[in-house]
Fold each of these.
Amino acid sequence: MNRARIAGVAAYLPERLMTSQAVEEEIRRNSAGFVPRAGIVEAMTGIRTRHIAEDSVQASDLAVAASVKLLADAGVAAAELDLVLFASASQDMAEPATAHMVCAKLGARCPAFDVKNACNSVLNGLEVAEALIATGGYERVLVATGETPSRAIRWQVRNFAQFAESFPGYTLSDAGAAILLERADGGGIFHRSFVADSAQWQVGTLPGGGSAHPRDPEYTYFKLNGPALRKAFEALGRAPLDAALAGAGLGWHDFAVICVHQVAMPYLRTLVDGAGLPADRVVVTLPDHGNLASATLPFQLSTALQQGRAEPGDRVALIGLAGGVSLGVMFVEL
């Protein structure tokens, strides 16, 4: 059976940084009659800074920046790619698929399409790429993401209630990331499992741009019921994680690092404690980089490799959490 191994991973972060204090100042400047309590954003999230792309930069540009670095490091030309998947919550436009913009900017001339599932987009993109490699249809697949959630942040706030429903936007960060999967005889991805409770889709949305709200600017901002989202994930519980370990016959200490999607430090601590994750194996990136959406997991894996926390032959765990709601687990041997 064909296996899919990670032949490389890279990330790109915009140089412009925005502190949580600056977030509050921006809200204060744009909002008549509402002033957020000083320090509330960092106190509630643990985020000190996040990355903001320039207005001229598109989601595809961030994906391309990461992909160019990845391909150079791997010694692979864009012409040698068999398939490109753009896997992101963001997109350049509704049509065509952003994967085509990525291919055009890279100079790739292969099939391309998008995979979208909120912050689990990359994890699902890897799932799709692995399956296509396993069938023998492709040998080398680029999974790339470019996230520009800063475009959907509400800066003009009427009152505390609107501030609360818009709060997730103040955690988000722009980023690009890319992972190269290649056919291999051994190693690579050896477990993947996903669960969803789609009845909870309304707890977190970015409603605009689709058939429900095609043009109304009011629907172009993130809206989230934080307590309801947390309750939805608590209802899923640790059973999917326990089942993944049991299926692989492993424990968390068998992994060099554990990459986990991160929204706020209190949520992360709850997950680590509740699931029994060894804290020293978890790659924590949230305080200095914010919520990188679907770029979180590849950025954490790239960071772990650069820091020497993981190396070829090691096992790594990828745990994704996303609106919808969905949870995914993937185990990989590097």
Note: DSSP finds eleven helices and 13 strands in the chain.
Amino acid sequence: MLRYLANGRIRWKNGMRCNTRTNWEFYAVIDGRCGVMLRDGQRPVLQEHMFWVFAPGCAHAWVDDGHHTYHRLSLHFSSVPFPLDELVQQNGGWLARPLAAADITRLLAIAGDLEQHFCAPVIASPLHFQRGLMELALLLLEGHRRAAEPMALTDVASFRVERALTWYTEHLGRNPSVKEVAEVVHVSPSHLRRLFAEVRQASPKELFRRVRLEKAQDLLGRTNLTLDEIARRCGYTTASHFCRDYKAVHRFTPSTWRRRLIDRFTRPLPAGIVPVREFSARPGERRLKA
């Protein structure tokens, strides 16, 4: 689900401190120069026509020359598809690539479609968000050496892992055990763990947890369900169990995330003010003059 969109020229008059985001951030410099700072005090190289993606929890800040504006496109999504998620995590939480003129044209077309549905959503808007996310992921991975590597595993192994994840997602409310999922794809639990390690470099438990939290994040953002109901739908025994799991990953509670999301719409920022960090833990960083 698309959580945030900003498309236009900007200049950070007061600078920015490194901070984590709660969503995946795609960031492109369309025109002008900008750099990314991975720790406070760092002096990054300002670059033109660049495209980045950052995972939640990877602290960073955007830097300009302090005198000139630049055109940036910033898009936040609650999750990204495989294999982009794993390639980003393996690279330390972020990836980047330069943009050619054709790439920029493509990016602006994607942004135009997303902006229309972000500002005036309709029933089909979630499908446009999914399509835009896939196009962004493909654009970012074009030319990436790992993305072009042939699959070293058999089709059967990949099929069983994907089938296991699909079935688990379809029965999320029950929170099926690894043994139950293994029976569905006709392998033993130990063999299923080996398949997950080979195909996705993670255990079934880790990926099942990711599925549950991604579903919970989606429900938090687009429904007014209580935490108890969201926990039940995502296979948690209690809301407190869900909150502990969520906080362990995001470092704040689901109630905090939802409250700040609602605040963004019920108390819009004044004209000329842009949100710097959508759900920053630092209240003073909620606003910064454009």
Note: The mean pLDDT is 85.
Amino acid sequence: MARADLLKKLFSSFTNDDRELFIKTAHEIIDDERKKNHAILADDLEMVLNGSKKNYRNTMHNMKTMISQNIDNDVRLVEFYYPDKYFEDMIIPKEKIVQFEEIIREFQNWDVLMCNGVTPTNKLLFYGPPGCGKTLCASAIAAEVGIPLMYVRYDALVSSYLGETASNIKKVFDLAKNESFVILFDEFDAIGRSRNDTTEHGEIKRVVNTFLQQIDNFKGRSIIIAATNFEQSLDYAIWRRFDDTIRFDLPSNEEKSQLFSLRLKQFNGPVQAFKTFLGCTSLFSYADIENICKTIMRKCILDGRRNYSKKDIEAAVEKQKLLVSLRKSQY
């Protein structure tokens, strides 16, 4: 929150129609926000003040350059994205949208809550079957808030060297302490596995302990999201570290139909015909429906047509049924 004296000066300059003082005070507020490490807010304020549309690609390039200076050149622990998919581009239950919108509202009013001694909900655990939107929802939250998605790379994070994985986890949290991100730990069971698992060696205990310490001590202005398909394998102490845990289930028949219609809206065809195949899609995830749509679109594009038929739908469904039958899953 901007200092009271600056806010008073800003309002006074506006009331007195003193443009020069208004601009000067606005720059002072921007500088003050930068000193507080609120770089993204400062950039947004500067963009509004200058009346120009800032190129977010350049913003991300500068951010990557700045952050890369803080990590080893031969190890890229994270990837940064500015997602462009919003909730309106997705088919998910309305109650989840309500949950996410409340989380976003709290994040946008971070200072208000903190000034009243309340911490915003910013540590989330997503769990449920694969292909049901956990990663996509994390990206959408970042897009809706307007901050980058920091995707943690497990191929770089997890090391065979003793103690290095725990050290890398600390580096990830250190990267995020001075900026705002949605930090996504996908496939979280890789580092959050139960310390009582007899098949694991002693290193997993060190890794879990490090994560617990880091998430407990993290004071950054970010949203931390951990996503897993195997929640039953997580350490019991992990669960209470999160402000909210959200389960993602397989889509209902209605949601499958809505997603099919949404993804094929640029093509013409018998949308309602898809409903005749719902009986054999009981184990299909959102990702499976997406794959059906992609199969149909590829076929149409390569055939040079913008229309799909019921036969195209049937062929795509049969192809995906085979893939689903081969998939080994407890769900």
Note: The chain has a mean pLDDT of 85.
Amino acid sequence: MDLAKNIVKYRKRNNMSQEQLAEALNISRQSISKWETGENLPSIDNLISLSGLLDISLDELITGEPYLHFPFNYGKPKNHWPQIILVLVMVIFTASLTTLFGRTPLIKVFDIIFGILISYTFVTRMSFYDYKRYCNYWTLQKNGITYAVDSEDDISFGKDFLMPLMGLLNIRSTKFIPYKRIKSMEIYLKLYGYNPSKELTLMGGAGISASSMVEQFELRITLLDGKKVNLNLNQYYWKDSKERKMLGTIVTFLKRKHFEFIDKQGIADLLRDGDGSLTQELYEQRDGN
């Protein structure tokens, strides 16, 4: 059963032997062994003690998945520091241009426009940080999903260019989908035609690279009226993100809804079973390695 497997899993993750865990709980090693084989179950008091010793919630200990709090904002940045840095770079670069070359009012106007455009483009397009997250994040709720309207179609270059600015000005436009309007949902990770032998690792994450370089990871929703909505899952690639921790639980929650859930790549099982690189496991699975 799941509880028995979870006790083994989290005991080993905490580098504890059966003897050490038994000593901490003031019980026999045989009791731990019987829990881990499913022969016996821990009492309520022991479950509470286990969750504390293994540093996990009761939900995670019993089900193997962390508790899902609603609403859950997937991909929404935690703070505004990247936006503050963007504004500072734009101001400093533009001020430098006008100081050095703004000899006449007309040239100063040109320098301001040019400086803002160049600095905005450089920071939002060349930075490792995905500034579009301030605009295109989505929210999971108990009765449906709220998403940015730009998720309905393939994003044009113009929209893609303006999304960081829309997030900065907080002019994001959203729509709400009740679960009863969903016909099907597919979780899909678009692999490259080849298995990259080298990956740019960012902040210790497995398979993390600049936002424009990672494999596209998304939920593809088809509504009853035929409309398509794509929800970006790329924030999963960041090793310590809440999205990485909660995606398996989110998938389990969505699979219980009364619409078709499609998972041709077996991603749900990989999310539940492994701590390794999801992309690498999918490449190996595809290539038969």
Note: The beta strands are 72-74, 138-140, 144-148, 174-178, 182-189, 217-223, 228-232, 260-262.
